[in-house]
Design goal:
The protein is an all-alpha fold. The chain is 51% helix and 0% strand. It is built from 4 helices and no strands. It is extended. 0% of the residues are buried.
């Protein structure tokens, strides 16, 4: 997996709108202020839901809708590509 550098992240941040940059700052402040800088995935997910950035389906709900259709792609299956890249 390709590593993203701080410089690359900063370049991407510059392309965000001012509102998106403020939102990113709030998220970073939240992460840094959390206990021992350790944010669990659950806590981070909850924060993202509270900010309206993502939604989480209720437990035991079907993840796929009736209109869901798989996307057909050409080439090797993704699982094979991932295994090859890990080597």
């Amino acid at each position: 997996m390709k590593r993203v550098t701080l410089h690359q992240v900063l370049e991407q941040v510059k392309m965000l709108t001012p509102d998106e940059q403020r939102e990113l700052r709030e998220i970073l402040d939240f992460v840094l202020a959390s206990h021992d800088n350790e944010v669990t995935e659950e806590l981070f997910e909850r924060m993202m839901v509270e900010k309206g950035i993502m939604t989480v389906p209720p437990p035991n709900s079907p993840v796929r809708s009736e209109n869901w259709k798989p996307v057909e792609v050409k080439g090797k299956p993704v699982s094979e590509i991932l295994i090859e890249e890990r080597r």
